[in-house]
Amino acid sequence: MENPAFVHHAVVLSLILFALGTLGVFLRRNVITVLMCVELMLNGVNLAFVAFSRAQGTLDGQVLVFFVMVVAAAEAAVGLAIVIALHRHRDTLDLDAFNLMKG
Amino acid sequence: MSGELDLRPLVPAIIVGVTGLVVLLAQAFTPKDRRAPSAPLSLTGLLAALAAVWLLASGGGRGAVLANAVSADAYSLFFQALLLGIAAVAVLLSPSYLRANGLDRGEYYALLLFSVVGMLGLVSSLELVSMFVALEIMSIALYGMAGLYRSRMESQEAALKYFVTGAFSSAFFLYGVALLYGVSGSTSLDRLEWAVSTLTTDSAALALLGAGMLLVGFGFKIASVPFHMWAPDVYEGAPTPATALMSAGVKAAAFGALLRVFGSALHALAGEWQPLVASLAVITMVVGNLAALAQGNLKRMLAFSSVAHAGYVLTALVASPGQAGEAVLFYLVVYGAVNLGAFGTIAALSREGREPLSLGDVAGMAERRPALAAALAVFLVSLTGIPVTAGFVGKFYLFNAAVTAGWVGLALVGVLMSVVSAYYYLRVVVAMYMRDPLGEDTWARVSPSATVALALSAVITLVLGIYPAPVLTLARIAARSLL
What we know:
The complex is a heterodimer. Chain A is an all-alpha fold. Chain A has three helices and no strands. Chain A has helices at about 5-25, 30-55, 60-90. By secondary structure, chain B is mainly α.
């Protein structure tokens, strides 16, 4: 068993990272920055997994981090491809510029 | 668990995944001047997977495998059969639409099959991380499908919006998984069920926060208000057969996983999450229906209607898991058939990059194409929930589940909102039957494969409206394996 105070701090930090990422998704308007904010949220999740893993004294949580990293990489590949396809249509990466559909 | 590697519960997903690879290879090895047989190959793969589900249902090999991560219990098999059926109809709808819009490439079918692999995994996972990986397999393939229409800006925009909200919601889902892992020390639903029934005050807060975050993650996938803002844009921008798959398949798969997690594993916390789900249901029904009233674009109207229908399904979740399961499973079958039919009608008429999207486009349709107009009318009447169609039976069981659980007000909102919805659904029927056509009929002739798909959807809609007993019995058996 790990020192409970350490685990507590790590979980609070992970929540802060997650919250910062969430805020960034809502406040930033550049597509790439928004993607980076999503990565920040995922890394908050990773920290929480590792912290809980140490609290439980099992390795499961640390293995799960690898799943998250692999999926995040796959997601980033598709996401950046979409961004490139968009950039060829419109010479901007501003999310507010993509407003063809309304109602 | 024995040391042997038993993959039998995974066979349907493996067949679909391998078919996806075969479709990609067939595309690569077909000479430039010939067309690869992507649609027949995909259909064969999906039917083979359906046969595998049938064999699993009638034989052995249904226990949990891969360290209790995946199983082929009655609940999984019911959903797998449903999802494979939905995908097969979506494949039947695709060739004519893709040709009419210059999108006829093998990648489309490969992405469709890969997303089906994710859906199959999602409904058969007994473990949260497998569920997450399946969710991502499904979603990442769908981001690609939404953006497949490279020359149309709307499609690219749809892909971007779907991707950003999808990635955002997965992060919420994962944080929920992390918190529940912190509570139970495991991501398996069995262990979780045991852990939440023995909570201390400290861990109760963590468990509730985790359950809430999971609900947000699922909320995005089923497009419940306030997590629905992506749905209208994505449904409008994506190629129409892909929209049909998204609205019918993704919703069914996400509800399958949602019900397994909340109805079964987190049932000990029902007192806490039920009021939350009930309020989600109410705002989803109200906002979805009111927004649909204001839509002039048919695809967008159907998108908001699909938001509203997520609300109807959520009302049943306040009931006991068995009863909720039966009502939800039956409704998802009905909803799948009806939505494939409605989006399919639009897709089937698509010609040279255009499709009928306004009331003017369908005006007088009954005169020119009586069979097609009748089919669309059946779908719209069923979406409204008028008797003799499956929509009525489905809604009856959903609201009945809510009333039995003592949530009469919730069912009342559902019924009132169904009345409101009659206006925007029947408006289309009125335009088809009572207005004179505007201009020439320039829409495509419906292809044989699309005819089969639409006829199948219409027959299922009518048969389940008149004789729902067999499917209800299957739904009941499937829901029982949740308990």
